Every structure is written in C-alpha cells, then in structure tokens.
Amino acid sequence: MSEPQVFTAVEPFRRALDAARAAGGRVGLVPTMGALHAGHESLIARAAAECDLVAVSIFVNPLQFGDPTDLERYPRTMEHDLGVCRRLAVGAVFAPPVVALYPSWPEPPSTVVSVRAEAAGWEGASRPGHFDGVATVVTKLFSIAGRCRAYFGEKDFQQLVVVRRLVADLDLPVEVVGCPTVRDRDGLALSSRNARLSPEDRRAATVLWRALSAASAAAAAGEDRPEALAGLMASVVATEPRATLDYGAAVDEETLRTPPRLERHRPVRLLIAAEVGGVRLIDNAPAALGRRPAERPAMAGATR
Ligand code: PAF
To answer: Going by CA atoms, what residue is nearest to atom 3 of ligand 1?
Structure first.
C-alpha cells in the first residue's frame, strides 16, 4: 500500500507528471469518473505494468451528461476510490472540482472539441452532446498530462474510437491503449451504473450479453448480414420484459459504420444499448465471420 499524491489543481498535477518524465519515467494516465470497480482496476493494473508513474483522474464531467438527473445520480465514492488507488500503488490522483476544469461553470466552456463522423451515430445519436463533452474533457486531460499512455476500457467502444480519432487528428502525444471489458461471471459488463440496478433489473441486464453472444455465434456460423445480426439482438432483448432496446448493430471497428456485409478479414463490433429499470446500459463484443472471435471476456475476480 502506498499513499498516492492527490491533486485538485491543474498546475501542480501537470508539474508532477513533467517531473516524472524529466526523471526518465513513463507516465500512464487512467481517466475515470470515479466509482472505481474491477474494470477500472484492470486499466490501472495494465498501466502499472507498462509505466513508471500511474496517474488516475477522478472527475464526474458535467459536460458529457445531457440529463441533469443522470448527472446528479452518478455515483460518487471518493473514499472508496482513493482506497483502490492506494491498494494498486497509483502515484498520482487528479480529482479537480468542476471549476478547476471549467472556470465559467455552470456556463459551459466556450471551446468545445467535437469529433464528427465517429461520434455521430449510436450513443452520439441517442445522447446529443455526450461525445462533445467526452472529447473536450479528454483533450483537456491529455493537454494537462502531456506525453503519456492513456488507458480506456473497450466497454465504451465508441468512446475509445472517438478518443483515438481526436488524438490522431490533433496530433496529441498520447498513446491510447484499449483494454478488454471486464464482466461479472454471468456476462454483465462491469459499469458504475450497475450499482443503480435493483436485484431484478441486475438479473435482467444480462440480456445484453446474451444478445451479443447470440449474434456473435451467428456470425461465427456464417451469418454475414449486419441487419440479420441486429435483428437477432433485438429479438433476444425482446424476450426480457424489463429491458427496452435502443439499438443493436454490427459495425466496422474503425469507422463504426454498418458494412453492407461482414467480411472474413475485416473486424466487426457488435454494439448494443438498452434501458433496464430506468438505467441506460451499453455493451459490445467482437464478431468474426466464420469463426469465434479471438478475444475472451475478462471475468471479474478471475485471472486471465
Ligand atoms: O469513461 C469515462 O469514465 C469517461 O467518459 C471519461 C473518459 C473519464 C471522460 O469523462
């Protein structure tokens, strides 16, 4: 156990990371909104294995929430989060108040980063402004942190694609590392939002993983029509009365557009979003035509 240095202001945090680099160290940044769970822990562990200084940011970014109730209900568990960081030997925690990053708040900042194509559909269509909020805060965090490796979960697959795009387009000195989704033993992807599910809704929420698994198996068995895979996911979700599907889709992993057909050597992602008991849940899985995809899900509490 070691005590992380906790920063609430931008400049001291920036200087600490600069100092680590000046001493020859590699910096790993894990951006989070707190409520840390085993999924975040896997990102921190990967960063610790690859970097000399691990910095975790904990900031519930108001700019990425369209719905004020959603923002209000977002879990805030700072003591627990600091305990996780202590246990995993995180070197620096950046936990700024909202005005440290957005001095004009509640007036939003004048400059906003907008990723166009990759942010347009799916979550972007269902949650207008969400990815502008994500892209803006991530760009700020990268600009403060400087040259680093930044670790993101594949659970928010579209977010990962959006972040990769902004890093490429803005020439930021950041290497983005995507890490596999961590799941409970029944397949539910770990998410800070799961804490808001009642026991019945928690059970019903496994329908997302069941839908993804059915579509992934269909692709492995030779189904190459994206709309058939989407229809299959919809039909699985329809069997669960507590769940309402927003979208299910099979998309190209880089562009997030639906291809006319799946092809053997072109990676495809199955995306799904549904509301269960008033909680919006998203998940995704790789699909490969004619074979089982290589990636095995990481299970919480299991070693991989
Ligand atoms: O994935 C999250 O927790 C957030 O969207 C992120 C990347 C920390 C930006 O606020």
So the answer is: 32
| pTM score over 0.85 | yes
The CATH class that applies to domain 5-179 reads alpha beta
- From 138, 176, 182, the mutation candidate for ligand 1 (largest count of ligand atoms within 8 A of CB) is 138
List Cα–Cα distances, 166 to 137, 151, 250, 268, in angstroms.
12, 15, 23, 21
Probe residue for ligand 1, chosen from 61, 123, 281 as the CB with the greatest number of ligand atoms within 8 Å: 61
Measured CA distances, 11 to 96, 141, 164 (Å):
11, 12, 25
Q: Is 32 in the pocket of ligand 1 (CB under 6 A)?
A: yes
Query: Which CATH number fits the domain 192-287, given the four candidates 3.40.50.1000, 3.30.1300.10, 3.40.630.20, 3.40.50.2000?
Result: 3.30.1300.10
Whether the domain at 5-179 and the domain at 192-287 fall into the same CATH topology: no
Domain spans, the chain = 5-179, 192-287
For ligand 1, whether the C-beta of 134 sits within 6 Å is: yes
3-state secondary structure 190-247: CCHHHHHCCHHHHHHCCHHHHHHHHHHHHHHCCCCCHHHHHHHHHHHHHCCCCEEEEE
Catalytic residue status for 40: yes
Per-residue pLDDT of the chain (304 residues; tens, 9 = 90+): 789 999 999 999 999 999 999 999 999 999 999 999 999 999 999 999 999 999 999 999 999 999 999 999 999 999 999 999 999 999 999 999 999 999 999 999 999 999 999 999 999 999 999 999 999 999 999 999 999 999 999 999 999 999 999 999 999 999 999 999 999 999 999 999 999 999 999 999 999 999 999 999 999 999 999 999 999 999 999 999 999 999 999 999 999 999 999 999 898 999 999 999 999 999 999 999 998 876 555 666 443 2
